[in-house]
Design goal:
This protein has 3 helices and 9 strands, in the order ββββαβααββββ. The longest helix is centred in the middle third of the chain and has 9 residues. The protein starts with 17 loop residues before the first strand and ends in a 22-residue tail after the last strand. The protein has 166 residues and is mainly beta. The strands form 2 sheets. The protein has a 7-stranded antiparallel beta sheet. The chain has a single domain, classed as Pnp Oxidase, Chain A. 13% of the residues lie in helices and 37% in strands. It is globular.
């Protein structure tokens, strides 16, 4: 027997739980947990992240036009939860967590070195989708830890212990 689903927030699962990192024009780094994200093109490669306009990172990405998608492992569950429940308006979340950062190669934003894969993106478009604005990012550069790269130079996602939706 079929039953009507009443909560549409997570109607498409599994979905990637990611961290989006960015840097304001003032040089301040930030990262936030994002639950709505995905691939949206391959020639050229594009990804999308959806962010609520009230979030601290939203105007940063609007102004700078860049962001980095950082894939999250189960090992980073507590950091993910913290970055999703605290605002960068109130302090330096990355420093408070002791998360290691590096510099983007193609975009002026921090990569999160604790994450297995970080994807540098330049915003090419955005669309309001009700509660969120979906930023479409052209993939400019991909960082991946050596142990996740196969002999063909591709990321072996099967070896990454991704954060599991609970």
């Amino acid at each position: 027997m079929e039953k009507e689903v009443m909560d549409f927030k997570s109607c498409l699962n599994p979905r990637p739980d990611i961290l989006v990192s960015c840097r304001g024009k003032d040089g301040k780094d930030n990262a936030l947990a994002v639950g709505y994200a995905g691939n949206c093109g391959y020639a050229p490669p594009m990804v999308m992240v959806a962010i609520v306009p009230s979030r601290y990172s939203y105007p940063i990405i609007k102004e700078t036009g860049v962001f980095i998608v950082n894939l999250v492992t189960e090992e980073l569950r507590e950091q993910y939860a913290y970055l999703g429940s605290h605002s960068g308006r109130d302090g330096d979340k990355l420093k408070e967590l002791g998360m290691k950062t590096g510099e983007g190669v193609k975009v002026n934003a921090p990569i999160l070195l604790d994450c297995p894969v970080s994807i540098e993106c330049t915003v090419v478009d955005s669309i309001r989708t009700g509660s969120h604005e979906m930023f479409i990012g052209k993939v400019e550069y991909i960082h991946a830890k050596e142990e996740y790269i196969d002999e063909n130079g591709k990321i072996d996602f099967s070896n990454i212990d991704f954060l599991k939706f609970r």
